[in-house]
Amino acid sequence: MNCQLSIYLYFCSVKKRYFIYFSYKGTAYHGWQFQPNGISVQEVLTKALCTILRTEIELTGAGRTDTGVHAKFMVAHFDLETELPVKFNLISKLNSFLPKDISIAKLIEVKPNAHARFDAISRRYEYHVVTSKNVFKNEFAAKGSEHLDFDLMNQAAATLMEFSDFTSFSKLHTDVKTNNCKISSANWKNLNDEWVFSIEADRFLRNMVRAIVGTLFEVGRHRMSVEEFKVVIEAKNRCKAGVSVPAQGLYLVDIQYPNGIYI
Fold this sequence. Notes:
263 residues; Alpha-Beta Plaits; nine-stranded mixed sheet
């Protein structure tokens, strides 16, 4: 009997790993990751999970977004010692508990070794730009010149796939081991009253998208040619690139994972 009880308790105590999918408006937060001197999305969501589940939770995100950046699609993982009760609607409870600028979409059990950050095979960002004054999008899009040459900017964006080292678009003095990324797509599209830059890669460096867009703006203003844009990348020097564009126009919109991590 004691042996059977021990086996039962062993299997009940095996950790379950969950992926949680959510979105947030980043205006009020100092990015995703815990910060010593400012509130972060990770801090708010972790506190909510700990309160509702009545246990300590360690939340690991798929990546980090900077201060003021939004996420239409974000993923993080956490572990529990036991399965969630069948009738326990964690999504509903979290959405009732969390502030209105963070929303939970779904919760999925994954394999115990699945990792929200390291198992991601691609990520996609969008940068939104309005070219005329729009009082309804001040918080959610950047203001760009109405005279930007988006056709030329698209020509420059297409050259990004020719390169792998994006040191010129990386924030200085970061702790990454390599500045290599594999960009699979990058282009501007006109959507109604705004332009949207979409870029997908296996990984991104800190500040990379905002620096790319800022440099593409130089191309769009005819201050830099497409060939000069390529020279900037080849220089592997952040000082050669354009200034970073404001954070409020940037969104993390998708993260892809291999099917093998799911149960």
